[in-house]
Amino acid sequence: MGAERRAKFERQFQRDVELLQVKLQDEAILDAVRASNERHRGISLPEIEALDRQWRTSGDEIMAKLTDSKCNNQLKLFQDTFKGFAEIFVADAHGLNVCQTNKTTDYYQADEDWWVRVFETGKVYRLPSLEFDESAGVFAVPVYLPVKEPTTGKVVAAAKAVILEDLGTP
After folding, report:
1. Which of 21, 62, 104, 137 is the most buried (most CB within 10 A)?
2. Strands 155-164 and 131-133, how do they pair?
3. HEC string of 79-90?
4. Predicted local distance difference test score (pLDDT) of residue 170
């Protein structure tokens, strides 16, 4: 990628991340995260693994059962408005999906390095280059963001977004 094209992508990427950070403070998303964190309080690893197996082996109907529809709709509306996002999802403090724009490959995220890193640092981070995202089925740059409780600043969830690079003519 040429320097000018890279600079243009970086500017757009930063704008996209800033827009998503604002969206992640939406009350529908925060309410869904709070409810999920409470609902999963005390959940055991065997219970999580059973849910994850069910998620991996079921069709899209499992998404309606295990995620918050209002929160899903908020993320989908955001994705429809800002076309650079191939996928967005939020996982609660237990690593379980709260809401998403499309079904992820797995339901349990706390065993992923990105989820651990977001909870440990409370900071946004990204990979430096394009990668293939299996659940979105595209080459893109993933970015990982904390979802923080507005009143305390405590990380209560982690979000992953897959941001497309315009692969058209430079």
Report:
1. 104
2. unpaired
3. HHHCCCEEEEEE
4. 37
- How many domains in the chain? 1
Question: Tens digits of per-residue pLDDT, 37-88?
Answer: 999 999 999 999 999 999 998 877 888 888 888 999 999 999 999 888 989 9
Single-letter code of the amino acid located at 58:
S
17: tokens are 């991340």
CATH number at residue 99: 3.30.450.20
Nearest 5°: CA angle at 102, between 99 and 105? 95
> Tell me: the pLDDT tens digits for 45-59?
999 999 999 999 887
Residue 169 has which token pair?
């003519």
Q: How far apart are CA 93 and CA 155, in angstroms?
A: 8
Asked, for residue 169, whether it belongs to a domain, the answer is: no
71-92 burial, b if ≥16 CB within 10 A, otherwise e? bbebbeebbeebebbbbbbbbb
Domain that holds residue 59: 3-164
Q: How far is CA 97 from the centre of its chain?
A: 9
Residues 78, 82: Cα–Cα separation, whole Å: 6
Tokens of 155: 């990380």
Phi, psi of 139 (to 5 degrees): -90, 130
Q: Which of 117, 122, 111, 114 has its CA nearest to residue 146?
A: 122
